[in-house]
Structures are given as C-alpha cells and as structure tokens.
C-alpha cells in the first residue's frame, strides 16, 4: 500500500506567481507529473490543504484540470488559503471525501489501513480549528477502525516547532481535545500535516506527527525569537507513505526534481570490506 502525500500547492490564476515569486502552478504540475510517473504506482494521492492561494474559482478550475492527469484517486482536505464553498463547487470529489456535515473531510479504508482527513479550516483565519462536530467525526472514525492502523491527515499541525510565526497559526482551537482523542487510540500510526512548508517530525499524544514539505516554496528555517515570515525556493518535495504488516507505516521524503544519477557504488580497493 503506497500513498503519495502532497501539500500546499497554492495554485494562482494563470500568469500570477504566488507572492510575485513562486511559480506555484508550474511547480504543482511538475509534482503531478512526477507522481504520475512513479513506479510502483501509488494507490492514492492525499493533498493536505492550501490547494489554492486565495480560494478563487479560477484557481480551483486550474487545479481540477491538473488533478485529472493523475491516474489514481485523490483525497484532500482544505487549508487556510482555501474557501470551503468555492472548493466544493470547483472540484470533483472521490465519493469518500464528502461529508454530510458540510466539512471537507474523508474516511477511507485502504488495504488494512483506515485514512482519516480532517478539515481544520477556520474561515478568514490563518490558524486552524477543530470544533465539536469535527472532533466527533474523528472519534467515531477512530473507534470504528477497531484497532486497525490509522493515518490522520490535516492541514494545521497540532504542535509547536520553534518557527515562531508558524507556531502562532498552527491548530489552536480544539488542539487539546484533539490530543486527548488521539491518545485514547494507540492504533494511530501517524498524524500527517501541511501548512508549515517544511519537513518536521515530533512525538505527539503517543504517536508521531509529521509535516510534509511543500511541492512549491518552503518556509525559511529560522528558529530565532525574531524570525520573520519569509520563504525560500528550496527543493520541492512530498512524502511517500508505505504500509505493510511487518515493516509498519514508513514515510519517505521524495524530491520532485530529478538530480544527477543513479551512480553505482563502485568500491575502491582501500574500502574496509574490499577483498585483497
Ligand atoms: Fe501553505
Ligand atoms: Fe496553510
């Protein structure tokens, strides 16, 4: 079982780079092409929010056309840059994605695993929230998993990472209740987030919480008190999650671009294990 996990596409109207610098549409297309060419082919793509930069109908129309190039199903949740109603009107959805309560969430069983997507969008705010309705959805989906391994996907990370301006806009409302629910379910293999545009991992509520890098621009790694909100065009990347009953849930960071190689490991005679 293989899942390609993309995040923070920030699609803009044609011809408008995000923040006047980041060519997010072209970068997203490159990521989609890279995933479509992967072997073995992922069973599923999950996108953890900030699908568009401003939540405009034109942005969702461009994204919809790009996603149609993927030969596997796509599940997604919104981020703070999305607008829920425009998103729902502009994208076609895997049937497992739409919930009756109006949030853009999902609960999907894939092989032995249960995948849960949470909508942490708080309209008009950069920080994330989980209300009682969404927390109840999580609790029910976890209970119904009956001990099967679970991965939870959500845009806003529920933990502090030391990048101050991002910590200020992480999951805030409902974060403690979220941690309490996760702690009651030891079958949660991973909490998988976006939003911070960097690869970050920590221990959280008895499991691992992991942030995927963006397929577009990356937030500057600045752990100083006064660190300003800026970004760098570091290598775009995504996560590849695999699961099998022996190895468990394993997450690889994969780069969108191709780099020189592959080269064989040709051993010199002075290598310690070389035969005399
Ligand atoms: Fe983002
Ligand atoms: Fe975000």
Automatic annotation (TrEMBL):
Keyword Hydrolase: yes
InterPro entries assigned to the protein according to its UniProt record, in alphabetical order: Calcineurin-like_PHP (IPR004843), CNP_phosphodiesterase-III (IPR050884), GpdQ/CpdA-like (IPR026575), GpdQ_beta-strand (IPR042281), GpdQ_catalytic (IPR042283), Metallo-depent_PP-like (IPR029052)
Keyword rRNA-binding carried by entry: no
Pfam families found in the cross-reference section: Metallophos
Keywords assigned: Hydrolase, Iron, Metal-binding
Domain Calcineurin-like phosphoesterase, first and last residues per copy: 1-199
GO molecular function annotation: cyclic-nucleotide phosphodiesterase activity; metal ion binding
PANTHER family xrefs: CYCLIC NUCLEOTIDE PHOSPHODIESTERASE CBUA0032-RELATED, PHOSPHOHYDROLASE
Entry similarity comment: Belongs to the cyclic nucleotide phosphodiesterase class-III family.
Protein name per UniProt: Phosphodiesterase
Species of the source: Bosea spartocytisi
């Amino acid at each position: 079982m293989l899942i390609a996990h993309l995040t923070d596409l920030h699609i803009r109207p044609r011809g408008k780079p995000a923040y006047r610098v980041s060519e997010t549409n072209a970068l997203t297309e490159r990521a989609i092409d890279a995933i479509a060419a992967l072997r073995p082919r992922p069973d599923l793509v999950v996108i953890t929010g900030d699908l568009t930069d401003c939540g405009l109908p034109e942005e969702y129309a461009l994204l919809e056309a790009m996603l149609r190039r993927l030969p596997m199903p796509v599940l997604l949740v919104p981020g703070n840059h999305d607008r829920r109603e425009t998103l729902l009107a502009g994208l076609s959805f895997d049937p497992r994605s739409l919930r009756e309560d109006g949030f853009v969430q999902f609960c999907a069983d894939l092989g032995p695993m249960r995948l849960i997507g949470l909508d942490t969008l708080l309209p008009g705010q950069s920080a994330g929230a989980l209300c009682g309705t969404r927390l109840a959805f999580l609790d029910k989906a976890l209970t119904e998993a009956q001990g099967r391994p679970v991965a939870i996907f959500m845009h806003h990370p529920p933990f502090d990472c030391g990048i101050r301006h991002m910590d200020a806009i992480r999951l805030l409302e409902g974060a403690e209740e979220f941690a309490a629910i996760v702690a009651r379910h030891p079958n949660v293999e991973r909490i998988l987030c976006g939003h911070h545009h960097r690869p970050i991992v920590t221990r959280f509520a008895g499991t691992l919480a992991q942030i995927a890098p963006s397929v577009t621009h990356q937030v500057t790694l600045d752990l100083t008190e006064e660190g300003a909100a800026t970004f760098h065009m570091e290598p775009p990347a995504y996560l590849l999650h695999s699961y099998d009953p022996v190895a468990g849930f394993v997450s690889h960071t994969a780069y969108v671009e191709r780099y020189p190689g592959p080269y064989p490991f040709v051993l010199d005679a002075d290598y310690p294990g070389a035969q005399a």
